[in-house]
Every structure is written in C-alpha cells, then in structure tokens.
Amino acid sequence: MNFLKMYRTYRLMMRAQWLDRLKIQEIQERKLRHVIRHAYKNVPFYKRLFDDAGISPADINTLDDLEKIPVTTKSILQEYGPEFLINRTMVPTKLKTEHSSGSTGRPFTVFFHSDYVYVRNALFLRGLRAAGYSIGRKLLLVTDSDNASKHWLRWRYASIQDPPELLLEQVNRYRPDFLYGCTTSLRQLAEYMRSTNLLGFQPEKIITTAEMIDAPTRRFLEGTFKAEIYDFYGLTEMGLVGWECHEHNGYHLAEDTTIIEYLPIENGDGVSKIVMTNLELMSMPFIRFDTGDIGIPGKRESCPCGRGFSMLERVEGRRLDCIQLKDGRRVSPYKLTCQLEKLQGIARYQVIQEDYGTFTVKVETGKRRVTVRDDEIHKVMHSVLGNEIKVVVQKAVNIEPTSGGKFRVIKSQVQEA
C-alpha cells in the first residue's frame, strides 16, 4: 500500500468536511461529470443504460440533472456479468473484491481498483477521528473479514463468528481504547458480561455498525461498557457513508465521495428510499444505485460541530432479526448472512425462523447456470446454528417483501410470537 498516497487522500477528506455548502456542491458536480463520462466510455452497462434512456454524458452536469438517469438496483446489476459492469480498461483479476453486507439478501461482488482502496481506508479513518480516535490508539475490530492485524497502527481483528466468551477474552487481553463491531455482536458480548457477572475491560469508545442501533441498545451498551457509543453507516458499494460526531445529532454524510438522494415512498410517513452515486469508484461505477435502505433526512441545516456535510437523521431499513435458539443462545444474523453469501448460485435468499428449532431458507437462483445445492445450505445453517435444528430449503421464482415493502433477509417468527 502507498501510505503517502493514502495520507494525502485522508488529508483532503479531513479538510472537505469543514467546507461550506456551495463548495461541497461544486466538488460533487465536478466529480459527477467525471464519473458519468468515464462510465459511459468504459463500462458497457452504463453505455447501454444511457443510450436506452436517450441521454448522453453531456446532459449530466449538475445534481439536478441526476434525475434524468434511471435508478439502478442490485437485482438489475446481477443480471449482467463482470464484463458488462467493470471498467474495460482494467483487468478483473488484478482488482480487489468484496461481497455485499447481506442486508438485502442478494449476494453481490464489488470490484475495487487500488486508488479506491485508499479512499475507503481514508473514509474509515475520518469516521474514527470524529469519534475521538487518533493514530497510535488501540483499536479492536470485530468483523467478518480476514484482515491481518495492523501492528504498526495498533489494530487487532476478531471474528464475528467468535462466541462472546472468546471475544471477551480478546478484549481483556488486548485492552483496546476503541472497540468496533456490528451492533448485535457487541450487544451479545455485553449480555454475556452481565449474565456471568464477568468484568470486562472498558474501552473509551464503542463504535457500532452494520445494523440499526435503537435507543435501548445504545443505553444497554453504554451502561455495560461505561463508554460513549458512536454509530457508523456504510455500504460495500460506497464505503463509509455516514458517521456520528460527539453531538450525536444524526449521521454526517460523506458528500465529497457520495451523492445521496431521497426518493419518495408511497405512504412512507416521512421515510424515503435512499439512492446513492459513488463519485470515486472507477473500476465498477455505481450511479443512482438503490441501496435497499430507507431513512429519514436530517432536519438540521448544520450541526453545532461545524461540519458542512448534510445530515441523515436515521436509517430505518437495516434492522435484521436476531436468531434465538432453544438453549437460550442469541445468534447475530450477520454470522449467518456472511456464510450464506459465500455460496455460489444464489441470486437472493431469505431465512425464516419458524420456531426455536425450525428454519426455512428461501432461495432465488435467477438466470444462473450454476445453482446452489440444498446440502450446501444445510451445511452452512448447521455450522452456524448447530446440528439440532431442522432446515427446509425452498427454491423460489420470486421472494415477496414483507408488509410495507421492506425486505427482511432474516425473519424471526420467534421474535413476533
């Protein structure tokens, strides 16, 4: 990694968050014109999309022009192979890949070029800085990735698959200043500490991510760890999009790297569909991408902290049901989704917990030459939830969303009983 290049990117981002609204808009529109022309010239999918819509790159110059471009969804992109979605001037095997987070039930691979990796890392560092982090402080990250620990940064990694007792052991051994992880995993750790009366090392700050954090969970984590909670909102396709500052008035949005639109939802009651455009990713552009999330735009013109970026008040569409087993264990839904997404041949899936020991896995295979085998799904389900459960696999043409139009990739009937 070119650390000088990443440092320069980080410094530019740190300055950008304090700019006024007019300057931020100028940056967005300059980058928008560049990514539009690049995508039309080098990415077959977008050339076809623009041509079919009867528009050209010259038609897109301002933020208001974006509405001329059709919205793209993950299901649409899944119908095309990498040769249609990736910059034709780049070699796919030389690009870094990541899978989507699992909140939509549609496994999806995103391809990153090296310069964009610097952008993602700088975005993450900027969010950490807003939570009070500085280089040299100890950070323990509970994630689903296989990242090697960055000893020079004093970063250590723990697996989302680790049980609470092992995670507590790692926290106590490393004694981090900052603890980062998905909301359910950190809540499970806190519940384990309380139920066993085992004292754990108390980090200075807790950073939650991947799931919506409600007020009771925030209070529970703060009460257990005696630490301030900061929440991050990010997507594989966009990197870190929103983060809390010390004012906790909502999420500051990374408008220097992303354009965020709020599209109306019928009977949405103040909630909007969140559509985003990535202004930095040239290897696999995302233009007017429907994130699958719904949220409430921030009402404040600005935050008392002084940052110039717009605010997102709340994300409403990222809650995944926690899985509760007969023996009393609660399993983070992301433990399951991260494993299911590694299987080939799934266009979309949904896991329904019928009761404490029975699970139905609905699978859309789409127009795929390779379809997932039932025994592969059984193996994943049993490896995460135990051999005692019963698993029923259903192949479906289309998985219907729940009432209100929200798709829930993990749906627990136990929680609703």
TrEMBL record:
This is AMP-dependent synthetase/ligase domain-containing protein. PANTHER family: CAPSULAR POLYSACCHARIDE BIOSYNTHESIS PROTEIN. It comes from the Bacteria.
